[in-house]
Amino acid sequence: METLGGVRLAQIFNDRQNELAGEWVAQQFAIAARRGGIGEAQLRSQFMQFVALVCTALGSSDRVDFRTAQWDEVRSLLSEMSAQRARQGFTPGETAMFVFSLKEPLFARLREELGGDGVKLAELTWTVSTLFDALGLFTAEVFQTSREQVIVRQQQELLELSTPVVQLWEGILALPLIGTLDSARTQVVMESLLQKIVDTGASIAIIDITGVPTVDTLVAQHLLKTVAAARLMGADCVISGIRPQIAQTIVHLGVNLSNVITKATLADAFVVALQRTGRSVSGIAPHAQVPGGAGANLNLYSGD
């Protein structure tokens, strides 16, 4: 919305800048102190930069319209500040107060300057209200967008962290899944597993679903897609962690896993993987002395 009085407001900002800064910084410091990381000197510097840009925009025309190009630098500064505060854990309201905290001291200066001219005082009060409401809403919108970007990035990082592909032995990979398996996570699982197959040249991968709380038709389809993708890369898959409840659910759903090797535990699946790669497991007599000490209880033999 376009209003009048830009040049007069710029003059008041310039003439009463130190007074405005003192009151604004005091309010902002009370807010920033709860979050930490922003000192009084930094706040004062931000204020001076903000006021300088606002004065430049106001002084360019007596007509005030926050949507015009002359306010581009102000919008850029507020965008940077809002994004920074989103990362620092501020709330949208605390971020918008960067702008709104200036309204009260500015109104007080307007009354001092224009107390005898009611018409002009009303005009500039309306201009200040309209302008600073627009500035505050802009900071809140940028803050919300920045926060959503942070959340999306964190979700992506959590997905990547929650789908580690571990090399158990030469040619054998393990992919332990924990939590719900949805479409987005399946894509990450596939990418991680296929890349690891390429990197290691593995011929068999164990997909462990012990940590998956429930298996429905959609989850089963996701698992089958992952198995099919791994096979296209030359690696067979074994699914472990098939508990009795999950086995019954799969049967009731009519999901066909007949062409996929399934095991109850990861240990059982590892034994199968060793056999499929030409190795065997044998026990060691209790009295045998081995370099690994008492904890070493098996030997791996290559079939070569």
Which word captures the global form?
rod-shaped
Could you estimate the helical fraction of the residues in percent?
Answer: 55-70%
| Biggest sheet descriptor | 5 strands, mixed
Mean pLDDT, all residues: 84
Spatial gap, N to C terminus? 82 Å
Strand count: 9
> Spans with pLDDT under 50 lasting ≥5 residues?
290-297
User: What is the CATH fold-level name of the largest domain?
Assistant: Globin-like
Largest sheet, spatial ordering of strands: 3-4-5-6-7
User: Counting H and I runs of at least 4 residues, what is the number of helices?
Assistant: 11
Tally of structural domains? 2
Estimated radius of gyration: 33 Å
Second rung of CATH, namely the architecture of the largest domain: Orthogonal Bundle
What structural class do helix, strand and pairing data support? alpha/beta
**What order do the SSEs take from the amino end to the carboxyl end, as H and E?**
EHHHEHHHHEEHEHEHEHEE
Can you tell me the CATH class of the largest domain?
Mainly Alpha
Strand residues, percent: 5-15%
Structural key phrases:
304 residues, alpha/beta, Globin-like, 2 domains, two-stranded antiparallel ribbon, STAS_dom, Bact_StressResp_Reg, STAS_dom_sf, phosphoprotein, STAS domain-containing protein
Explain what this protein looks like in three dimensions.
The protein has 304 residues and is of the alpha/beta class. It has two domains: 3-159, Globin-like (Orthogonal Bundle), CATH 1.10.490; 166-283 and 296-302, STAS domain (Transcription Regulator spoIIAA). The chain contains eleven helices and nine strands. A five-stranded mixed β-sheet has the order 3-4-5-6-7, with helices on both faces. Strands 1-2 form a two-stranded antiparallel ribbon. Strands 8-9 form a two-stranded antiparallel sheet. Helix 3 (40-59) runs antiparallel to helix 4 and helix 6 runs antiparallel to helix 7. The protein is rod-shaped, with a radius of gyration of 33 Å. It starts with a strand and ends with a strand.
